Automatic annotation (TrEMBL):
Annotated compartments: Membrane
Residues reported in the UniProt entry to bind heme: 438
Protein name: Uncharacterized protein
Keywords: Heme, Iron, Membrane, Metal-binding, Monooxygenase, Oxidoreductase, Transmembrane, Transmembrane helix
Membrane protein topology class: Single-pass membrane protein
Entry-linked PANTHER family: CYTOCHROME P450 26, CYTOCHROME P450, FAMILY 722, SUBFAMILY A, POLYPEPTIDE 1
Keyword Transmembrane helix: yes
GO molecular function ontology, one term from the record: iron ion binding
Record-stated family: Belongs to the cytochrome P450 family.
Cellular component, GO, one term: membrane
Gene Ontology BP annotations: pollen tube development
C-alpha cells in the first residue's frame, strides 16, 4: 500500500538523478554498446525472473513515471511487461529491484507469509507522519500486539452498533443531492466517509474540531506524497506540523476521557476501557502513543479508500443498466420489507445478497489498492525463479483481478461472477490477504452497502463524464474527474412497480 507513496517522493530524487544519470551512465559503461551487452546478459540469466533492469542508475523509472503521468496509472507499465515476460518479472525502479507477481498462488505464498521470508516495507518518512507505532510501520511483534487489540474492536459485534449510525449519516448526507442536480460523487463520498470514520473512532460528528481534523489529515496525506525535506514551509514539514496538531488534539481528548470517566460508543472508548482491566502480562493494554498513532492511521487508511470505492461503484452501476435494475429490484423489495423501521441493522446487511456481490465486483474492477509491496528478508523461490534478499516483491492484485484465466470476461462488470462461492482462493484481493488483510474490511463493506441501499432506493443518476483517467500521485486508485453525475429522485410509482 505504501510503495506508491515512496515512489512519489522518490520521483523528485529521480529528476536530479536523471541529470547525473547520463554522466554516470557514460562513466560506468563507457559506451552504449556496453550497456546493451549488460542488458542482453541479464535477459539470458536463467534462474532469475525475466525482465529488463533498464538503464544503470535510473532503471525503468522513466517508463514507470510516463505510465503514471498518462493517467492510465501504473497498471499499464506492469501489464505491458507481464504480457512480454509472463506472470513473474523483474524491473528496476528508483534504483531498486522490484519483482511483480500476478498469480493467486504467489499471492497466497507472499501474503500468508508462513515462511516468514517477507515483511511489509518500512519507509522512514511515512513513519514520521503516521507514527512509528502505527500498524503500517510497527515491528512484527508490535504489529501483532496492536492488531490484536484493534481486531477485537472491529469484530462483528462492534460493527452491529455502528450500522445505524452509518445509516443516519448517509441518509442525512444524501438528502440534499436532489436539489443540487450535478454531484461530484468523490467529493461527497470523502465528506461522508471522513465523518463516519471520526464518528466511529472518536464520536466526532460535526463542529470546528472535526473541520480542523479534516484539514490536518489532508495535509498529512499530501505530505506522504512529498519529498521528505524538513525545511520550513516544505510540504513534508507542513505534514509533520499537522501530525503534531493531531497528536496534541488526541492527547487532550484522551486526558479528558480519562478524567471525566465518561463512556462513549466509539473505538477510543474501547481502547481506553482496557485501562481498567487487570494488567495482563501476555497482552498488555495499548499505550497512549500506540492509540494516537493508530487512530490517525485508521482515519487515513479508511476514509479515502472507502470514498474511492464508493465512487467507482456509482460509476460502474451508472454505466451498467441491467446490473443497476437487478440491484434496485432487490433493494426496493428490501426497503418494503423493513417498512416502519427507519434504519438498517447488521442483519439487514447480511441479507443483501446481490448488493454484496456488486460491492465485491466494484472492488475487483477498481482495485483501489492495486498492488501490495513486501520486502524479501531471505533468498527464496517464487514461480520457479530465484528471488534475492533485499529485493521488493509486489503482489499485483489488479493483474490477478483482470486475469481471464481467473475471471471470465474480466473487463465486464458482472457481480454474478461471484455466485460461485468455490472460486479460486486468492482470486479476489480487494482487501489484501493474510496477516496484513485490511483491518477495516467489514466496516468498509458495511459502509458501501448502506450507501448503496440508500442511493438506489432514493435516486436515479446519469454519469456525466465517462472518463476513467486516474488521479496522478493519489494515495489510491481514484477517478480524476471524481465522477460527476446528474441526480434525480426516483418516482414513487417506480419503486412501487419494482417492489411488486
Ligand atoms: C473499500 C475500502 C478499503 C479498501 C479497498 C482497503 C484495502 C486495503 C488493503 C488492500 C490492505 C492491505 C495492504 C497490504 O497488504 O499491503 C489494507 C490494509 C489496511 N486497511 Fe484497508 N481498505 C479499505 C478500508 C479500510 C477502512 C474503513 C479501514 C479502517 C479501519 C482500513 C484500515 C486499514 C489498515 C489499518 C490496514 C493495515 C493493516 C495491517 O497492516 O495490519 N481500511 N486495506
Amino acid at each position: 500500500m505504501l510503495l506508491p507513496l515512496y515512489h512519489a517522493w522518490a520521483c523528485l530524487c529521480f529528476c536530479a538523478a536523471l541529470v547525473l544519470g547520463g554522466y554516470v551512465l557514460v562513466m560506468m559503461y563507457g559506451s552504449v554498446g556496453t550497456v546493451r551487452r549488460r542488458r542482453d546478459y541479464e535477459e539470458f540469466e536463467v534462474d532469475v525472473p525475466p525482465g529488463s533492469l533498464g538503464l544503470p542508475v535510473i532503471g525503468e523509472t522513466l517508463q514507470f513515471m510516463a505510465a503514471i503521468k498518462s493517467g492510465r496509472g501504473f497498471y499499464d507499465f506492469v501489464e505491458s511487461r507481464r504480457l512480454r515476460c509472463g506472470r513473474c518479472f523483474k524491473t528496476n525502479i528508483f534504483g531498486e529491484t522490484h519483482v511483480f507477481v500476478s498469480t493467486a498462488t504467489s499471492a497466497k505464498m507472499i501474503l500468508n507469509n508462513d515462511s516468514g521470508k517477507f515483511t511489509k516495507r518500512y519507509i522512514r518518512s511515512i513513519a514520521q507522519l503516521v507514527g512509528n507505532q502505527s500498524l503500517l510501520c510497527a515491528s512484527h511483534q508490535q504489529h501483532r500486539h496492536v492488531r490484536g487489540h484493534l481486531n477485537n474492536f472491529f469484530s462483528t459485534c462492534s460493527l452491529s452498533a455502528f450500522i445505524q449510525q452509518f445509516d443516519v449519516l448517509i441518509v442525512k448526507s444524501l438528502d440534499d443531492w436532489e436539489h443540487r442536480g450535478t454531484v461530484v460523487v468523490l467529493d461527497e463520498a470523502l465528506k461522508i466517509t471522513f465523518k463516519i470514520m471520526c464518528r466511529m473512532l472518536l464520536s466526532l460528528e460535526s463542529g470546528r474540531q472535526l473541520e480542523m481534523l479534516q484539514e490536518d489529515v489532508s495535509i498529512v496525506c499530501k505530505a506522504m506524497l512529498a519529498f521528505p525535506l524538513r525545511l520550513p514551509r516544505t510540504r513534508f514539514q507542513r505534514g509533520i506540523e499537522a501530525r503534531e496538531r493531531i497528536m496534541s488534539a488526541l492527547e487532550t481528548l484522551i486526558t479528558q476521557r480519562r478524567l471525566a470517566r465518561t463512556s462513549h460508543e466509539d473505538c477510543l472508548n474501547y481502547l481506553l476501557s482496557n485501562d481498567d482491566e487487570t494488567e495482563c502480562k501476555k497482552d498488555p493494554k495499548l499505550t497512549t502513543g500506540e492509540i494516537k498513532d493508530n487512530i490517525l492511521t485508521m482515519i487515513i487508511a479508511g476514509h479515502d479508500t472507502t470514498a474511492s470505492a464508493i465512487t467507482w461503484m456509482v460509476k460502474f452501476l451508472g454505466e451498467n443498466e441491467t446490473v443497476l435494475d437487478k440491484l434496485r429490484a432487490e433493494q426496493v423489495c428490501f426497503a418494503k420489507k423493513m417498512s416502519g423501521r427507519p434504519f438498517l441493522k447488521l442483519e439487514d446487511i447480511g441479507e443483501m445478497s446481490y448488493a454484496s456481490k456488486v460491492v465485491k465486483e466494484s472492488l475487483r474492477m477498481a482495485s483501489v489498492v492495486p498492488w501490495f509491496p513486501r520486502l524479501v528478508l531471505q533468498d527464496c523461490d517464487i514461480e520457479g525463479y530465484k528471488i534475492k534478499r533485499g529485493w521488493n516483491v509486489n503482489v499485483n492484485a489488479k493483474s490477478v483481478h483482470f486475469d481471464p484465466a481467473v475471471h471470465d470476461n474480466p473487463f465486464e462488470f458482472n457481480p454474478s461472477r461471484f455466485d460461485d462461492e468455490s472460486k479460486l482462493p486468492y482470486s479476489f484481493l480487494g482487501f489484501g490477504a493474510g496477516g496484513r488483510t485490511c483491518l477495516g474490511m467489514n466496516m468498509a463493506k458495511a459502509m458501501m452497502l448502506v450507501f448503496l441501499h440508500r442511493l438506489v432506493t432514493t435516486y436515479k443518476w446519469r454519469v456525466l463524464d465517462p472518463d476513467s483517467t486516474l488521479e496522478k500521485w493519489a494515495l489510491f486508485s481514484r477517478l480524476k474527474n471524481g465522477c460527476p453525475v446528474l441526480v434525480t429522485r426516483l418516482a414513487e410509482e417506480t419503486t412501487d412497480a419494482l417492489a411488486d
